Amino acid sequence: MAHHAHHESHHASHAGEVHPEVGHVVPVKYLMAAGAALLFLTVITVASHSVDMGEANLPVALFIALIKATIVALVFMHLRWDRPFNLLVLIGSIVFVLIMLAFAMMDVHQNLPTMFNGNAPEAASTMDANAPGAPVAQVRSTNGGIGSTN
Amino acid sequence: MSQTIASTHTQHGAEAHGHGHDGHAHGDHGHAHDPNLAHHFDSLQQQFDSAKLGIWLFLATEVLFFGGLFVAYAILRMSHPEIFSYASHYLDTVMGGINTCVLILSSVTMAMAVRFAQTNRRGGLIACLILTFMGAIGFLIIKYFEYSHKIHDNLVWGPSFYVPPHDAEGDAEAKMLKTAPAAPGAAIVVNNPATFAIPDLAAKPAVDASAVKPASVGPTGVARASGAPAPAPAAEPAPGHSEEAHPGTHLEDKAMPPNTHLFFAIYYAMTGLHGIHVVAGMGVLAWLTWRAIRGDFSSKNFTAVDTGGLYWHIVDLIWIFLFPLFYLIH
After folding, report:
1. Predicted complex ipTM
2. Contact criterion met (CB below 8 Å) for B300 and B48
3. Chain A contact for B32, CB < 8 A?
C-alpha cells in the first residue's frame, strides 16, 4: 500500500505553516507544556514515594498517574480536539476494566480472611514431603507422618 | 491503506493519467477526485474520522488487554500486600524513573512528528520519527539491564526463584570441593555436606535430618520437584545478611515473605507485554520513517503518522501506570 502514495513527495518540501484540511494541529507550546508537566509529575511521583503516607501512598501515586494519563490522552492523543466519540471509546474500555476490577476485588475481599501467607500449611507440607530432596523426616517429626495429612 | 484505493481510483478516473507513480500534479486533470480520498468515502473528513475511530477501537482492545493483567495485579496485591512491599525494593527506581522520562520524551517527539507531517515539514518529521525510535531503543536498553540483572540473581517467576543465584551456588560448591566438610563463613554454609542435595533424607538418622532447616511455608517443594536438586538451606546464615548488603541472595533473607516469586511473575508479565508493545512500536516507527524519507506524508496525507503516533502514546500511557505500581511501593 505504501508505494502508491508517491503523489505527495513533491508537496512535502513546502516550507511554512501549511495546515491540513482535516484533523487538528496542536500548537507547539501545548506539546512542550504537556511534556514538561509530565516530567514534572514524574518527579513528584518519585518524591511522593519517599514520603511515608501509609495507606495513602498508593492512591496518591495512582492519582498522579491518572493526571499524567489525562494529559497524554487530551494533548498528545488529540482527544481534546478530536471527535468526542473517540474519547467515549477510550473511557468505555476503561470503564469495563474497572467493572472487572470491582467484581474481582469484591471476590478477593470476601476470601481474604481465609487466606494464608503463602500456601496453606497442609498443602505446603505435602508438597515439600513429596518433592525430591525434601526433608521428609522433619515433616514426619512435626506432623506425625505425612500419611496423616492425606 | 486508503492510499492504495485512492491511487487506483485516480488511474481509472482521470483521462490520460495512467501513471500513479510518476508524481506529477493532479490539479490539471479537471476532475474532482482527490488522490488521497478513497472512493468508498464521501469526503476526506469522513475518511480521516473513520481511520481515527478504527485506531481508537484498536486502542480500546489494548486497554482491555492490559486491563486483565491490571486486575490480576490488583488481586495479587490485595491478597498479599507483604509480597509487593517487600519485593518492590529489588526494582531499581532510578532506572524505572529514567525509563519513564525516556518514554515521555519520545511521546513529545512523536506528537511533534505528527505536527511536522501535518504542516508539510518532511525534515522535521523524519528527525522526530528517528528521535522517537531512539527513545524506544533507549527504553529497551535500560529494560535489558534491569532484566538481565534480575535474571542473573534468579529474581524470576516460578521455581527458579528458589534456586540460589548462580554465583552463590558456584561459590558454595567450589568452597565445598576445596575445603569440605565445613567452610566457615561461606555464602551458603553447608554444615553437613551429606545433607547437600541428598534425596533420601528419610533414610538418615533423625539427628541429621533435624539439622535441616524446616521446610518453608511456600512452594519451595514445587521448586525442588521441578528437577533441579536444591541445596539444603543455610542452617545458620551469616549475620548481617540483608537485601541491601547482598541483593542477590534473596533466599537467605529471612524477611522475605512466602511466595515472593509471585511479584516477579506479574512484574515480568506486565512489563514484558509492555516491552513487546515497545518492540512493535519500533516496527511502526521504522515503517513510518521509511515512508517519510520516501516522501509519502504531507498535510494531505498524514493519517498513518497520526494513528501510529496514537499507538505509541498508549504504550507511554500504560507505562505511566506500571511505573508507580511496581517501582514505587512502600
Report:
1. 0.70
2. no
3. no
